[in-house]
TrEMBL record:
Keywords: Isomerase, Multifunctional enzyme, NADP, Oxidoreductase. The active site is at 137 (proton donor/acceptor). This is GDP-L-fucose synthase. PANTHER family: GDP-L-FUCOSE SYNTHASE. SUPFAM superfamilies: NAD(P)-binding Rossmann-fold domains (SSF51735). It comes from Larkinella knui.
Length: 312
C-alpha cells in the first residue's frame, strides 16, 4: 500500500472505521474513499457492484457491519445474520471481480466456541458450540473469514482477516439497549452522578471476564496488517489481558466519580464466561497495543463528555 493507493474504508462513520481514517491520515494515506449507509446500502448487491466498478479501489478495509452488545445480538438475531452475511458477501465478491489488490475483513472474538481453551488461539475456530446470545452474528463472522479464505484459494485474492477483541473508544454506540458494556457503563455512571441517583444497574453477575482494546490501537494493528501481512490464517487482535465485569464497573465508577452503589441485574445474560485472546501470532509479527485500560477508559470518558450531545 503506498501513499497514493485508493483505499476504501467501509463503515467510516463507525467506531472502528473512524479510527481507521484517523490512523491512515496520520500515516500520510491521502486517497481514501467512503460512503455512508444512506449513500450506499452494502446489503444491495447491484449497488455494491456498481460502486466497485466505478471507483476501482486498490485496498479495502471492511469495517461496516451490523454491530451491537449482548442484548441487541440476542434480540435482533435475524438482522445480525442477514445484514452481515450480505455486507461481507457483496464487498468480498465485488473486491474479487474488480481485482482489489488486498482486503482486510474484520471479524470478532465471538467466533470462538463458548468453552474453548483460554487464551483463545486462532486454531480453536470451529472446535465447539458457540455462545447462544450471539450465535447468528458469530456465524456471519465465520462466513466472512471463510469467504476470504475461499477467494484466496480459488482465485488467488490477497484477502486477510483480523479478529478483534471487545473494543471501545471515540464514536462508540452509547444507546443503552444496543451498546456494548463499556460505553453503557460510562453513560450509566455519568447520568447517575449528574442526577445524584443512589445506584447503577449492571447486567449479569459481574463474573464474566472480558478483554478490552482501544479502537485507535485496533486501527493501528489493521493498518499494520494491511501493510505487512499476506497469509491465509486470520490474526487475533487484542491486549492479552482481561478483567471481570465487576472490576471494569469499579474502574468506570472511579473514573466517572460516581459514589453510589452497584446493583447487579441477574435477569440479564452474562454471555460467554471468558474470551481472552491469545495474541502471540500478532506479537510475533511485531505489533503490540499501546493503550492500557485505565488510560483508555479515562480518555473515552473525556471524549464522552465532549460529545455527549452527539452520542446520546
Ligand atoms: N465494537 C466492538 O467491540 C467490536 C467490533 N468488531 C467489528 O469491527 C467492525 C466495526 O465495528 P464498529 O465500528 O464497532 O461498529 P459501528 O456500529 O460503530 O459502525 C458500523 C458501521 O457500519 C456501517 N453499516 C452498517 N450497516 C450498513 C449497511 N447496510 N450499509 C452500509 N454501511 C453499513 C455503518 O454506517 P453508517 O454510519 O453510514 O450508517 C457504521 O458506520 C465490525 O465488523 C464489527 O463486527 C469486532 C469486535 C468488537
Ligand atoms: C464484542 C462482542 O460483544 C458481544 O458480546 P459481549 O462481550 O458479551 O458483549 P457486551 O459488551 O454487551 O457484554 C459484556 C458483558 O458485560 C455485561 N454487562 C453489564 N452491564 C452491561 C450493560 O449495561 N450493557 C451491556 N451491553 N453489557 C453489560 C454483559 O451482561 C456481559 O456479561 C457480542 O454479542 C458480540 O457482538 C461481540 O463480538
Amino acid at each position: 500500500m503506498n501513499r497514493n493507493s485508493k483505499i476504501y474504508v467501509a463503515g467510516h462513520r463507525g467506531m472502528v472505521g473512524s479510527a481507521l481514517i484517523r490512523n491512515l491520515q496520520s500515516k500520510g494515506y491521502q486517497n481514501i474513499i467512503t460512503r455512508t449507509s444512506s449513500e450506499l446500502d452494502l446489503r444491495n448487491q447491484t449497488a455494491v457492484a456498481d460502486f466497485f466498478a466505478d471507483e476501482k479501489p486498490d485496498y479495502v478495509f471492511l469495517a461496516a457491519a451490523k454491530v451491537g452488545g449482548i442484548w441487541a445480538n440476542n434480540i435482533y438475531r435475524a438482522d445480525f445474520l442477514y445484514d452481515n452475511l450480505l455486507i461481507e458477501a457483496n464487498i468480498i465478491h465485488s473486491a474479487y471481480q474488480n481485482s482489489v489488490e488486498k482486503l482486510l475483513f474484520l471479524g470478532s472474538s465471538c467466533i470462538y466456541p463458548k468453552l474453548a481453551p483460554q487464551p483463545l488461539k486462532e486454531e480453536s475456530l470451529l472446535s465447539g458450540y458457540l455462545e447462544a446470545t450471539n450465535e447468528p452474528y458469530a456465524i456471519a463472522k465465520i462466513a466472512g473469514i471463510k469467504l476470504c479464505e475461499a477467494y484466496r484459494s480459488q482465485y488467488g485474492c490477497n484477502f486477510i482477516s483480523a479478529m478483534p477483541t471487545n473494543l471501545y473508544g471515540p464514536n462508540d454506540n452509547y444507546d443503552l439497549q444496543g451498546s456494548h458494556v463499556l460505553p453503557a457503563l460510562i453513560r450509566k455512571f455519568h447520568e447517575a452522578k449528574i442526577s445524584n441517583h443512589p445506584f447503577v444497574e449492571i447486567w449479569g453477575t459481574g463474573s464474566p471476564r472480558r478483554e478490552f482494546l482501544h479502537a485507535d490501537d485496533l486501527a493501528d494493528a489493521c493498518v499494520f496488517l494491511m501493510e505487512t501481512y499476506n497469509d491465509e490464517s486470520f490474526v487475533n487482535i487484542g491486549t492479552g489481558e482481561d478483567v471481570t465485569i465487576r472490576e471494569l464497573a469499579e474502574l468506570v465508577k472511579e473514573t466517572v466519580g460516581f459514589e453510589g452503589e452497584l446493583r447487579w441485574n441477574t435477569d440479564k445474560p452474562d454471555g460467554t464466561p471468558r474470551k481472552l485472546m491469545d495474541v502471540s501470532r500478532l506479537h510475533s509479527l511485531g505489533w503490540q497495543h499501546r493503550t492500557d485500560l485505565q488510560t483508555g477508559v479515562s480518555a473515552t470518558y473525556q471524549d464522552f463528555l465532549r460529545n455527549q450531545e452527539v452520542y446520546v
